[in-house]
Amino acid sequence: MKSLFTILFLSLIQIFSAQEEYTYANGIFQFEENKTQKIFTDWTRVRQAPNVNAPMLDSLHTNQQIMILKKDETVLKLGERIANWYKVSYQKDAQVLEGYIWGGNLCIGYRNKNGYDFLFGVTKTINRKDKEFNNITVQQNIAAIKVMEGGVLIDEVSFNTGSEESLNFAMFTIESNHKLQNVDLTLKATVSGEACGIASYDQYVLFRNKKLMALPQLMNVGDADVFYHSEELIFPNDKKGIPNSFIFKMEEMVKDDHDREKKKSSSRIYLWDGNTFKLK
Predict the structure, then answer these.
(1) What pLDDT is attached to residue 133?
(2) The pTM is what?
(3) In the record, which residues are listed under signal peptide (predicted)?
(4) Distance of alpha carbon 273 from alpha carbon 275, whole angstroms
């Protein structure tokens, strides 16, 4: 449970930032020229020019590999996703074709393991009422991890990634299975901001029997030595881990008007039976 001061702080950031005009792209959608990339969304449109009203030349399916040729200066904002257009090339039916694609439709991370392609991207923005703080309406980005086998989508799992301020940096890794029974792979997706007071989000996803399973999401935020809120998962192979379970741990600190630190922490244990988890 996030504390009241954390919810208030993040909500105020979202309210004030919504009043600004955006002329720049989210950092996670900054792609290098002359580098390969992959399509994340379903049937991404390829345009003749960097504009949603330009003629459509083609459409590309999830996991299609492309080459980034050039970043165009045109920026498009859809919800909280803000990205440049990119001129790209790709191979289709033995031909090399070119066109423009909006950067928000591309993967922000992808990995291949054991014949599976794992893709990480941001899909949309929704308006959500925060029940922990007077039902205030906040904009929430939704991300997803997809797993493909032989060009076919076999599973997908979605999760929250905060507001646009948290979309400055992304990381997507395949980790060990942390010694959880019957788990083939553990995926970790991260998005974060670059300034104090901007939340970062870590999402662990288990892959087993061709299915993805999201674990409780982690949120971390802080502002110098004024306050912090930290969350982590402790797995069986960690020093403080427990067999056939994982631990959610939270710690936070805030300084009062007299510069005195007030700390609190909590933890909860989730039992893992090889198929699913439940709170102990």
Answers:
(1) 60
(2) 0.88
(3) 1-18
(4) 6
